Amino acid sequence: xxxxxxxxxxxxxxxxxxxxxxxxxxxxxxxxxxxxxxxxxxxxxxxxxxxxxxxxxxxxxxxxxxxxxxxxxxxxxxxxxxxxxxxxxxxxxxxxxxxxxxxxxxxxxxxxxxxxxxxxxxxxxxxxxxxxxxxxxxxxxxxxxxxxxxxxxxxxxxxxxxxxxxxxxxxxxxxxxxxxxxxxxxxxxxxxxxxxxxxxxxxxxxxxxxxxxxxxxxxxxxxxxxxxxxxxxxxxxxxxxxxxxx
Length: 246
Ligand SMILES: CC(C)(COP(=O)(O)OP(=O)(O)OC[C@H]1O[C@@H](n2cnc3c(N)ncnc32)[C@H](O)[C@@H]1OP(=O)(O)O)[C@@H](O)C(=O)NCCC(=O)NCCS
Description:
The protein is about 10% helix and about 30% strand. By secondary structure, the protein is α/β, with parallel strands linked by helices.
């Protein structure tokens, strides 16, 4: 996967790329999109975009797959500085990208906030759970690939240009306590241009520095400095001062 991923935006559909295709082909394309649920996705995206801005803005600030389960409390804040794409992401791997995976879930509890600080893509099956009075901020050009989970009880901040792979889990809370009085919830901070490999897990209290790489399957329990590569469970430094190529 690379930053070359073609994200599917609210103002562009796959078939629009073939604007010069013959009339019959175009109608076939439209019919295919309607049958595949694209029309429903646009309707749902219009609803969320209007709810966000209070009027219809083009291009739509929110583009959401119709299957996405949205649950945003009345007192919650959804802030989108540029655009949020949910449930659509075509990778260069395979012919069908990541279509057909699980539905997305976006949940923001009472008083919670989800702040999208630019253009952010959440791939199919990604679940974003922001608890009551909790805050999740995601920076410009960051993307999260299929089936990852961002679980926020207190505060999670993800910088810009981050690549978060498949099946990653970020949790700022343990949910339960081992020792009485011990802190089981602490802020997670992910810097800019961080690459988090598939099936990695980032636990409470961790800060990851700019440009760091988290290897596939790593369980990160301690801070990672800028430019480090960490791997394993618990994650240990395996390389330093790297520059990964998007
Ligand atoms: C992090 C990663 C990119 C590093 O690649 P690399 O620079 O070629 O690293 P190396 O293969 O030189 O490995 C360096 C050391 O870390 C270890 N290591 C690398 N990845 C590891 C992993 N996922 N888990 C445990 N150890 C790992 C290697 O065994 C090696 O150990 P050694 O020095 O004792 O031999 C790569 O290991 C990785 O995790 N790739 C998967 C990325 C991914 O999930 N992509 C999905 C799409 S975004």
